[in-house]
Write a structure and sequence with these properties.
Chain lengths: 366, 296
Amino acid sequence: MKVVLQNLTKKFPNRNKKGDDVIAVNDFTFEIPDGKLIGLLGPSGCGKSTTLNLICGLEKPTSGRIFFGEDDVTNLPPENRGVGLVFQNYALYPHLTVRQNILFPLQNLKGAAKLSKAEMLRKADEAAKLVQIDGLMDRKPSEMSGGQQQRVAIARALVKMPKVLLLDEPLSNLDARLRLQTREEIRRIQRDTGITTIFVTHDQEEAMSISDMIVVMKDGIVQQIGKPQDVYDNPINLFVAKFLGTPPINVFEGRVSGGRLYVGDDEVLRVSGAEDQPVYVGIRPEGFIPQEAGPLCCLLSGVEVMGRDTSVVSSHPAAVSVNVRSIIAADYPINREAETVRFALKPYKVYLFRKDTEERIPFEAV
Amino acid sequence: MENKNWKAWLYLLPAIAFLGVFMVYPLVDVLVYSFEEGYNSASQTFFGTGLYNYSYVLHDPYFLQAVKNTFILVIITVPVSTGIALLISLGLNSIKGLRDLYQTVFFLPYVTNTLAVGLVFMILFKKTPYSDGLVNLLINWFGGESVDFIDGPYWAKMFVMCFYTVWVVMPFKILILTSALASVNQDYYNAAKIDGTSRWRTFTRITLPMISPMIFYLIITGFIGAFKAYSDEVALFGTDLNAAGMNTIVGYVYDMLYGDSGGYPSYASAAALILFAIVFTITVINLLISRKNVHY
């Protein structure tokens, strides 16, 4: 089932009545293709959870429309939309066993959709098998680990075979190792069922790793939509560039002058296609190549060996943040005793942004 | 280790001393009195020991009447007050405007003096040769005969007593249940909504289990409180409850100690211990039932 959002806007009245309305989601238009896994990504308060609530029907949009397939569901109550929602805290009923929790949505069915007891149990078992908790059906949620509870919550959302599965920060309550495991699991379940899935997260790594497409939001406004790698490689503005990637992109004050790009006083690249102007220069951590006579000269403050790679922490007078962090392959020797380290740059890992609007400036390295 | 133990006891000493003097000693004393026949507190004398006091109390028609009254009161008021309090709390929880006002209004009886309220009830329910109370006026208006609720038939008096008790115990229950309802995570309701759960099913399968510990607490304390009812009856029917036929077990104990026919600490002790046995049994039964139905 494809999901179409059309000029979706949600305003909340301001707490103190005199203030302006708070715009949680602003003019969101997007067509989510059938059977894809979509990550809604943004810092907290950017409207991603509100978007999710609008799609599932817990909130009514101020304006705009929502379609599931060809059906306009904007005014349908949540129960008639055929969505499954997994809550951030799972919202498993603590007094019911796993089986009872998974059966709960089925027992609500009325009229023609009503199922026999045996049929319900069969479906519940099926859902439990899908998320691999079929051995724990008689436990109470409190007797399970966070990861297991998460699976139960997914099973409960899936048991009615919803048209759309929504996950609100599905991994935020899990520890790092479980998070890795569970996100693979979510990916697998989504592939197995082919249900269009939308999940919300503030963790870019999470979104990048499993989504077919990501939507980056900020202050209720969609910044960029695309395949994770495309968005990473071609951020539309400084916010998106900063938000995606760990360690984050390094930002410098710089300028373009006469076909040359300067970071501070270091002339780092020859560029064409960009007008002379002061710019923000974003350089991905993997965009640095240590070189004796490299153009970018940084003060070395530390070297962290992380096995496969080496992380070089340095500083530069023109850098916006205190540290400049670069990731380089471990086979480049770094003199830890040196005061400075010089880098050459990979041009395709360097981005220029306008100072005023922070929008990306296209350029070509020559 | 021994040194530590010694210190621990030292720290506990004040509490233990207080409890010993003001709790344990009197309790043991009551137990002792209840087996001493004809104990006289002035002369500290008694004739003999045995179960005679229990036998006397259990054969005293006033005591039996008091037990009957107490049980009727308990059986009617505990479920009724808890049920109505739950309904009101649900109502309070689902309205937005004026909620604080209603909450305050519902809580007012809790801070009002029992005797004053009793007086108001007497005026509401009274029937004298000269003037009728509001309730009787209403009954007349609907074409019924005036009923003397304060000094008339047993059922009428019992009705007023139950009505009054429910009214007095409700505010506290509403307070507890409103906060219990408010503390149920909204996500559970959202989850239920998305699954298309009917309101009734949401209430019975989610809300009730979620607040069951609080309901259970109210039922237990409600039982205990109702079994120990006394002052409310005095407020309505005056101090001579035996004559009014509206005595309670605690009232009986009081009468045996200080009433006009009083001065029998042995009988009072026996009656008090019988009350203790009843309350204890009921509470144990409650606890057993709660194991299955209360979800912590």
